[in-house]
Each structure stands twice: as structure tokens, then as C-alpha cells.
Amino acid sequence: MMKSTPRALLIAPLAMALSLAPTHAQTAAPAAQAPAQPLPSVDPHANETKAQRDARLKWFREARFGMFIHWGLYAVPAGEWNGQPVGNGGEWIMNSAKIPVADYAALAPQFNPTKFDAEAWAQIAQDAGMRYLVITAKHHDGFAMFPSQAGGFNIGASTPFKRDPLAELSAACRKRGIKFGVYYSQAQDWHQPGGAAYGGHWDKAQDGDLHAYVRAVAAPQVRELLTTYKPAVLWWDTPVEMSREDIQALTAAFAQRPDLIANNRLGNGVKGDTETPEQFIPAQGFPGRDWETCMTINDTWGFKKDDTNFKSSESLTRNLIDIASKGGNYLLNVGPDATGTIPPPEAERLREVGAWLKRNGASIYATTASPYKRLPFEGRATVKGNTLYLNVFKWPEGGLTLSGLQTPVRLARAVDNTEAVPVRSANRFEKLSVRKDAAGTLHISKPSKLDAVSTAIALELTGPPQVLEPETLLAPQPDGSFKLGAIDATLQGSLKTEGGDKGNIGFWTDAADAVSWKVAAPAAGKYLVLLDYSCEPGSQGSTFGIEVDGGDSGLRGTVPATASWSDYKTMTLDGTLALSAGKHTLRLKPLAKPGLAVMNLRSLSLTPQKAQ
Ligand code: FHN
Q: 188, 183, 184: which is closest to 241 by C-alpha?
């Protein structure tokens, strides 16, 4: 299990994030109590037309790949305090070790990252094929990485390093055509009085009014950031009890940055422009929403000297391909150390991802999501205009096939080429043969060179790809049981999947939402129904029923609590489900939801009952 930030702060259903994120109520003056129910939000782009939104997000949707940078005072202790390793992310050390404000602030005079080289960092991003960059301007520790006039705890006032890293980095990015963005922790601030703190304050110096903190520090710093560095992206994080007035103060400077893209973590129900799944790839993406998966290369966002659990460049590249195939972006993190150096193992992996992109980037940049839910090979698909790209991770023994494509193929070719040549001179590419069999399945020849990470193929069609995918009809396992997973489910409403092919259905905050599967029963039979589910305490008690082909099966269930959203247990329903031979649609439908969410559901299983 990845050591990371406390789960409650990882992105959870928005309604839950607002309630689960820690309150500071036990430390704030009574007057600071936020209203019990979030007031209507102030979304700065609420009145935008679709055309305006599409224009504003165009570069983001084409970028597909960005660099996240978590860099701050926490790089000095680097995951260790009083000689002991400290758990969670390196950037959380002040909270995880409950370091008193004065002791943590005493680190600042030691922070002098003289090796910081913005040109080198921007070049690493460019060579990796990253099209934008988001750096922590102020993380939860309250230390600003820019010479802020609001709040005296910053790199300009508190350290011997008298340069402005954000100014240098934004200039280096602009020189390379890389979009520059900033991360800002708008509610959590463990230094300035009144800032929120996950788990509550641990030092009286932190006590104060959250909303007064927003007015005095956070909102002025956000204004400074937007007007001084003119970022293309503003990355909010861990909203805690943000009031309507807080939202208005924090977004007041948006008028000066009309093209700004801001994420979904501002708080008070503001949807923002992008969903932000963290450390996982949603199994079906977020249809209809822009989104980016943010992820660490090892297990920490901020530098920890002992964290050498680096993902392979193959895994990172395949993550990027998987994310692009679902219409999302990959915001991949580096955690520079206290000298201002990006850890070489991270830089090396980024160079390797960039080398793959240099040859195959046409299958990633400016593409849209796959028209397929499932593919008959280990790989992914993306689309760009009339071209369907296939990224084949492992070439199938029996040859590459593709079913369900209704649009004729004009030309098939390998994408990998050392120089980008206009597609009209297609003979500069290795052409591939495509044969359609009587069932309409395409058989595509193997290129002379396969790529160990992923071999990209381009099918140039006579029009945009139209796919008639065989419905996902789930057959029983060899033992006669059925395992109906999240990725096979048809989701209704705002339900989302998270966590890849073994993922779960989550964000079940609307009791009107239901989930269904199509199964093919080879013979009539009776089945026990088992759920692999999780439900954080406080959200338990939802009831649900199982329908078969629209009719009530009579089966009922009530969701008990588990230890957390990531603590999965098996629930077995009373009674059995009878299925006749043939195709059926099974539907799990909530009947009542007393808590914030129904549950997270990883799978529903049917276990055959022997005839008595
Ligand atoms: O608490 C932070 C964490 O330190 C890190 O910044 C991540 C990055 O998305 N955001 C919060 C956890 O969700």
C-alpha cells in the first residue's frame, strides 16, 4: 500500500471531501464556524458558453502530459525528524511529526537551494514531452516559495536564498512553450494563525479564525500569484470549510486571468474545470469532464531521502497511454531536494518516457478517448480525427485483431518514426496490411519492429471511427460463478469508477444512481449474491435492491460500515437470486441513503447454489 497522505484527504466524493476533510473547529473561535450547509457557490466561469470553455481548455486537452513539482521547506528534513523517519508524504512532515511552528520555521534559514536551475528543470520537462508544469507555490506548511507580501513566511523573507524560483521557472517554461501553473493550499496552513490543519491544530500558535486567514493571507497570495506569474493553471488543494465569502475572496483576481484553468478542489461545491483523481487512473475516465490523474513517481510528493520506490519508465509510459485512452491528462510529480536538484532517478525516468513520446507522441497528444470499452489485446486505443491509434503493449501470439470497427480503413501504418513526417508522405512510414474476415474482424500485420513498452499503430480511416462494440456480456467463470467488476458495469448518473481495471465504483452520493451488468447464464440456476464493498463510518445504513431485467428480485441489502473507504469487506445477501438460461440485466439500485454515500463497490459476485 502506498505510503501517502491520509486517505481522507485523497480525493473522495466531493461532498465527502467537504465533510471528511478535518475541521479546525476545535481550535477556531466560535465565530469562525462555517455555515452548516455550503452556500451556493461562486463559480467564476459559471456563465461561460461551451465554445468559450472549449477554447479555454483546448491546450489542456491536447497537452495530455504535465509535470507536477512539490518543492518546499519540507525538502530540508527530507522525511526525517529528530533522527527518526516520519511516515506519509515528505511534504506532510510538519503535521505527521506534530512539529511546533517555531521549530519548523527554524528550518528556513537552512534552506538555500543554490543548485536550483530553472532552465534545467524546464528542459527536463520538455525532454519528457511534458506540455505544462504545476509547482507548489504554498503547500500546507504555509511556506510560500515566492517573495510574498502577504504573510512573512516565505523564501524571500525567511531564507538566505534571495531569488524567486517561480519567476525563474515561469520564464524558462515560457521560453519553451510549456504552460506554467501553480499549486496553492488555500485552507490548510500549519504556520499562519487560523490556517486549517488535517486532524486539528497541535500548536497554539496555529489558532485563529480560518476565514480571517483566507482574507489576510490566502486570498492576497492568490492575487499575487495570478498577477505576478500569470499562470495558466491554478491547482487548489484540500478544501476545508470554505465559505461563499472565502470562495469570492480567493477567486476575486480571476477576472485578471480569464483563460485560467482551475481544478475541482476549491471547495464549497465549486466544480472547477478539471477532476483530479489522485494516485489512480479511473477505470472509465470521467466522460463529459476534463480530468487529470496526478501521481508520484515514487511514494511521496515532497522529497524524502529514503523513498527509492520509483515506478519504472515502462509503467509510467503505459499509465500515460491508459490515461490518454480515457480522455485524461497525466500530471506526474517530481520532488526536488533541498539543494534544488530533481532526484536523478526521477529525471532519468522522465527522459525515457520522453524518448518513447518522441517516436510515438502522435498517438497521445491532441487525441481523444477510445471508442472501445474493451480491446482484444493488451493495450489501449485513442482517436485523432479520422485516425484510430492502437497502442499494443504485448503483441498477441495469434496476431493483432480488432472487431466492431464500422469505418473503412484507408491505410494502416506503424507510428514509430525518428522524424515527424507529414502523414501524406505515408510511404515514409512502414505500411501494414489489414485483412477483414467474414465476421468483419480486422487482422493487422505486425510491424518489423516492436516496442517493448508499447507499439503504436495508426489506422487511417475514411472518416471518424464508428464502433459497434459487442455488448459486454459477462459469462460465468469455470466454477459457474459470475464476478461482475467495476470496469464491466454500466454506470448511471454521477457514479464514477476509480483505480484501474481492478478498481471500484465510487462517488455514489446520489441515491438515484444505479449500476448494472449484462450476464449470459448458460442454464437456469440459483445464486448467492456477494458484494465486495467499503463504506466509511458515518455513511453506513444505505439499503438497496437487486433487479433482474427490470423486475424486483426481492433481494435486499443494508450497507454496514467498514473501517474506511479503502477497507473492503464481503457482504453476502440473504436469500438466492434465480436466473433462467439466457441473457439478463442485473441492476443494483439504492432504496435509501441516510449517509453521504451509498458505498464503494469493487464487484458483485454470484455463487451458484447446488440444487437441494
Ligand atoms: O495533502 C496533499 C498532498 O500533500 C499532495 O499535495 C496531494 C497532491 O494532489 N494533494 C493533497 C492530498 O490529496
A: 188
- Work out the pLDDT band at 31, boundaries 50, 70, 90: very low
Q: Is 91 in the pocket of ligand 1 (CB under 6 A)?
A: yes
Q: Which residue has a Cα nearest atom 13 of ligand 1?
A: 10
N- to C-terminal Cα separation, the chain = 43
Long-range contacts of 87-90 (CB under 8 A, 24+ apart): 87/3, 88/3, 88/4, 88/5, 88/6, 89/3, 89/4, 89/5, 89/299, 89/300, 89/301, 89/302, 89/304, 90/300, 90/301, 90/302, 90/303, 90/304, 90/307, 90/335
Helical (H) or strand (E) element with 237: none
pTM (2 d.p.): 0.82
Return the percentage of the chain with pLDDT > 70, whole number.
Answer: 89
241 C-alpha to ligand 1 centroid (Å): 17
Are 322 and 291 in contact by the 8 Å Cβ rule? The answer is: no
Distance CA 173, CA 180 (A): 6
Looking from the CA of residue 198, the nearest atom of ligand 1 is 1
Q: Say how many CA atoms lie within 13 Å of 372 toward its Cβ.
A: 22
Provide the pLDDT confidence category of residue 505 given band limits of 50, 70 and 90. confident
Contact 571, 560 (CB under 8 A): yes
Distance between CA 52 and CA 259 in Å, rounded?
A: 9
